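ok trying again, last paste got cut off:
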Amino acid sequence: MMSKILVIEDEAAIRRVLVKILSEENDKYELFEAEDGLAGIEKIKKEDFDLVLCDIKMPKMDGVEVLEAIKKIKPEIPIVMISGHGDLDTAVNTMRLGAFDYISKPPDLNRLLNTVRHALDKKELVTENKILKKKVSKKYEMIGESEAISHIKQIIDKVAPTDARVLITGPNGTGKELVAHWLHEKSDRAKGNMIEVNCAAIPSELIESELFGHVKGAFTSAVKERAGKFEAANGGSIFLDEIGDMSLSAQAKVLRALQESKIQRVGSDKDIKVDVRVIAATNKDLKAEIEKGNFREDLYHRLAVILVKVPALNDRREDIPLLIKHFAEKISSEQGTAVKKFSTKAIQLLQEYDWTGNIRELRNVVERLIILGSKEVSEQDVKLFASK
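nice, full thing came through this time. structure:
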């Protein structure tokens, strides 16, 4: 695959020397030229380059301005600055602004070639890393091609690389947890922990200790100091499931953690800094809960920077055949048996059901049909074993 290299240099003789050296060095380098910074920026807007070599002193637009402009337009492109003897201080400063490296005029052949090779290697690694981040573990794969699911996947692709907080809403059993895991796995925090907290499953008197930890003696059963979930998630993400069930006291502490990136263990007044991305989910109408005085409006606005609404299965029936196939393969693999097929009529009948329990209910029904149904699950099997 050809590597596209753009040389931005106002001195034609130096520009041609650079192009000649690089083109003779490697026949997989495709060289482009720009006689000044403005021309270079125009080319970068139109073409995808793998590397830019840019002079510092140029008319119309100097190299520092070109560097800053490229970092705004296409920040992933490595930029090597070309410096005259008197530009060395500026060249060093460009490294702080994001330049990959600099080479001096007249260019030393080995230094030039090594710098170009290293810069292209870095670009390749960055590209591979981006591709890997777009791939999500099969464990948390969202199955479906409906418009609603495609829209959610698009939102995740845009939001995951940022640190924006996300509030996921939708009925029970729709897959809100999968959305949270997708966000984490596609983010720059994927190497960190993804800590899950089911706020509805923890008694209200223990939720603060669970989230923020406690010191010894903070309450009767606090026999030793303990870190909380926010500390465990430091550098990663925390998923607050069923946040609508959280006590008002805990809500106030979560709000402080979001505002100041600090927490305090129960029984302590010592601040602990935390770097955590918060993803929350609920099956409740939080605006209605705010009206009732059960949920803090200021916390809602902090959490709901990005809203993701996960649809009920009844609203995405076109995805049911894909979900049945996915669950049949997964369940058969878990059980170490051959994958059972579902007849067309069996699938059509399942598409007509009222799935009040959503995807969770569908998975249970598929498992039941695999265990109890015929070699190929039939319409009759569905009528017998999938009754509501």
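cool. The first helix runs from residue 12 to 25. The two ends are 57 Å apart (CA to CA).
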